[in-house]
Write a structure and sequence with these properties.
heterodimer; A: 496 residues; alpha+beta; Dna Ligase, domain 1; six-stranded antiparallel β-barrel; B: 277 residues; alpha/beta; Rossmann fold; 22% strand
Chain lengths: 496, 277
């Protein structure tokens, strides 16, 4: 049920409810009157969309080009048939032995997962929509409109098949226009005058006279390799072998296009209808199957093949240009030593990022900031290019610790002069007597930055301290001296 | 015939070992090991002071093996200095630094001549990840070296690291926080670096970082180092291990210098080294 126009209405009904005469769009009170024991649940459109999205993802086993038709619920569209999936199977049907065979597999596969599905296949999205919803029934879950016979196919369908609003359908009904065929015979002028452009637009879209672009969920990658198995496979060795074959094919395609992969998606379509996707990224474009296979190896460690894998697909989601390298007689690239070094390092970064996570493998870049915790920014090494930065510039000659605590630790301090260095401090339940101190170095807050944390709002006076054992600490006093309040001290780092 | 041969074979071990044969074998092993040390001679880093270099059989620190450094922030600085030194020997190359904590401060490392641009920092969730990352790094010959901070290391893992480091010629520094209970036995050298009160300087502020450097173990050290033996003979020490030095980081040379001036200091007693020498 859902709230529409101030009343609670039925959003969707299961077959049992429909048998009792309950239809989507009905007020809840009417439905309860028809069947007092009705079980009602609030509609969750967001969850539905998520589930549809997952289903669209799973449907990429038939075509890489899938999209969710997000029109939800029975109220927006006449006839109570709402959301669906778009699958553009251009160029894919032959892989399954023809259009009919593809649709049979599609509906059969969904049926096995307890998803009742209807499919329509036509030259235009509009016609396919109409066929799926109005030319199918339980015994024939899919309909195909032969190319060029769209008009005949559509003529017999009700006008609701044109994705029209309920009010428009009612209006047409009052005029006695119940079938699409009736509309086709009407002159266009009066139709447009009476119902606005919408009826004609839908009609044209269904017949392919108007354009109707549909964006796919994700842009279909240009380099894809796919491997289907007669029997589901599940052993790790089989997966690895399949991956090797796919990589080989994909890399040949990449080479022909003069490109290298920056990101590869390896998708395992499993017998139970779920999909498992593993993604790797590379710091430089690569089409070396051995290197790419190595990156996947760690990723596939925890892969659970479930009931077995039916199809494997490998897609290059992101590619960059990668020029042909001349190779020597030994097969090694004739590259200057520096390039070999960099390629080597890039491969290491790829492997590390693959296993530890790109967030955890970083290079550090200097940032123009006086605040010590901001002066270096960790950048994921997979995206960072090796540039030369100024780490010893005039602003960076001040002594800095080799280890900096991510969060300064509050310490107890004994300082004879309120704004002087401490003579003793307590850290980790131990007294440290200060042998020597250096400072202060005053670091002011950077008020021009918006993302201030509470700790960065005060002036800090930094001191270097050396305790009697020779250990060197970096401590600071927060805020300016105020007679009414003892100052707060923090330990922030350690010098070597 | 057969039974006699068996008996002879069984009796063999009971006899006193032939010392001549054993000595011959020992010499052979020594030659092999020295040979290995000699091969890596061009990858040996001078620590900055002749006394320190002479204490090592390679006449400096070899860049092809596993070295263990225990200690806190001082050890981090020492490791950064060593990596910077090897960075000067091998003009292009990267250092892989692996640890769990996100405490490393690149700007502070730069004070030891270390170039943060040439560092890849890898954070592992546990020691296993770090060991894996270290080994991956050691199999990448274009690296200058790998540094790993790890609290516990199984002997087999240390051995693997040492073998990988020897094979690829990449240096591996293991930083052990505090004093580890189980040192990595496979390491070529084992150091302990502790902070030490620096010499007083004129004017305000501190002097350069000063450490007590302790060479706790050194492979081939017993066998091949005539320099060391001579040194200990002249000093008349009964026990030469571990060896201690008081050193300072020297910015100009990018290496260590013996802190000679420290002896005049009135405050700091030399309690640690006194007990040992």
């Amino acid at each position: 049920m859902t709230q529409v126009h101030g009343g609670t209405r039925i959003a969707a009904a299961n077959p049992a409810a429909e048998a009792a005469g309950i239809v989507p769009g009905q007020p809840l009170a009417d439905a309860r009157a028809l069947y007092p024991g009705l079980a009602v649940h609030p509609a969750a459109p967001a969850e539905d969309l998520k589930a549809l999205d997952l289903l669209a993802e799973a449907c990429t086993r038939f075509t890489p080009w899938t999209a969710v038709d997000p029109v939800w619920g029975g109220c927006a569209v006449g006839g109570g048939l709402g959301a669906g999936l778009w699958l553009d199977i251009t160029g894919c049907a032959h892989l399954f032995g023809g259009e009919a065979a593809l649709l049979e597999r599609l509906t059969g596969w969904l049926g096995r997962q307890n998803i009742s599905a209807r499919a329509g296949l036509a030259d235009t999205p509009g016609a396919a929509w109409a066929l799926a919803r109005h030319a199918t029934n339980d015994s024939a879950p899919f309909t195909i409109a032969e190319s060029g016979a769209l008009r005949q196919c559509l003529a017999g369908l009700p006008v609701a098949a044109l994705r029209l609003e309920a009010s428009v359908i009612e209006g047409l009904d009052r005029l006695g226009l119940r079938r699409i065929g009736d509309l086709l015979e009407m002159p266009r002028g009066p139709l447009a005058k009476r119902f606005g452009g919408v009826v004609l637009k839908r009609l044209d879209q269904a017949l392919g006279q108007a354009d109707e672009p549909i964006s796919p969920r994700r842009p279909p990658p240009r380099h894809v390799a796919r491997l289907a198995f007669a029997e589901p496979v599940g052993r790790a060795e089989d997966i690895a072998a399949g991956l090797d074959r796919l990589l080989d094919r994909l890399c040949r395609g990449l080479e022909a296009a003069g490109e290298g992969a920056r990101q590869l998606d390896f998708t395992l379509y499993q017998a139970d209808g779920t999909t498992e996707r593993r993604t790797i990224g590379t710091s430089r474009p690569s089409r070396d199957p051995r290197h790419l296979a190595r990156l996947f190896r760690d990723k596939l460690d925890g892969a659970d093949p479930g009931f077995g894998i039916e199809i494997m697909a490998l897609a290059a989601a992101r590619t960059n240009n990668l020029d042909e390298k001349q190779t020597g007689l030994t097969g090694w690239a004739l590259e200057p030593a520096k390039d070999v070094n960099r390629a080597d390092t890039a491969r290491l970064v790829d492997r590390l990022s693959g296993k530890l996570g790109a967030r955890n493998v970083t290079r550090v870049r200097p940032v123009e900031s006086h605040l010590p915790e901001r002066a270096g920014r960790a950048q994921s090494a997979i995206d960072a290019s090796d540039t030369a930065n100024d780490w010893k510039g005039p602003g960076r000659r001040l002594p800095r610790p080799v280890e900096l605590l991510p969060q300064p630790l509050p310490i107890d301090v004994m300082a004879p002069v309120p704004d002087g260095p401490p003579v003793m401090f307590r850290w980790r339940r131990r007294q440290h007597r200060v042998a020597r101190a250096e400072g202060p170095e005053r670091i002011a807050p950077e008020w021009w930055r918006a993302e201030d944390t509470p700790l960065s709002r005060h002036v800090r006076d930094y001191y270097r301290l050396e305790d009697e054992g020779g250990k060197r600490y970096w401590v600071y006093r927060e805020g300016l001296y105020r007679p009414d309040r003892p100052p707060a001290w923090y330990l922030h780092g350690f010098f070597a | 015939m057969q039974s006699q041969a068996v008996r002879a074979h069984q009796e063999g071990p009971r006899q006193a070992p032939n010392s001549a044969v054993l000595d011959g074998l020992k010499t052979q092993i020594r030659t092999i090991e020295r040979g290995r040390a000699a091969v890596a001679a061009e990858h040996v880093l001078s620590l900055g002071d002749e006394t320190l270099d002479r204490a090592l059989p390679w006449n400096g620190l070899p860049g092809h093996g596993l070295h263990e450094i225990s200690g806190d922030a001082a050890a981090t600085g020492f490791a950064a200095g060593l990596m910077a030194g090897f960075g000067r020997i091998r003009a292009n190359g990267t250092v892989l630094w692996c640890q769990r904590e996100r405490t490393l401060y690149p700007q502070g490392l730069a004070a030891f001549g270390f170039d943060p641009d040439r560092m890849i920092l890898a954070h592992g969730a546990n020691d296993t990840d770090i060991l894996w990352a270290l080994e991956e790094g050691l199999r990448t010959p274009s690296l200058i070296g790998v540094v790993g901070r790890i609290s516990k290391i199984p002997p087999i893992a240390a051995r693997r690291l040492q073998l990988a480091a020897e094979e690829s010629g990449v240096m591996c520094l293991l930083l052990r926080p505090g004093a580890p209970h189980a040192p990595a036995g496979a390491a070529l050298t084992r150091w302990r670096v502790t902070a030490m009160l620096g010499a007083p300087i004129d004017g305000p502020g501190f002097g350069p970082p000063s450490w007590r450097l302790e060479l706790q173990r050194c492979r081939l050290g017993e066998a091949g180092n005539d320099n060391r033996r001579a040194a200990s003979a002249t000093l008349g020490k009964t026990r030469a291990w571990p060896r201690n030095w008081e050193v300072e980081w020297c910015d100009e040379t990018g290496g260590l210098a013996l802190a000679a001036g420290l002896r005049d200091r009135p405050v700091e007693p030399r309690h640690l080294s006194d007990g040992i020498h």
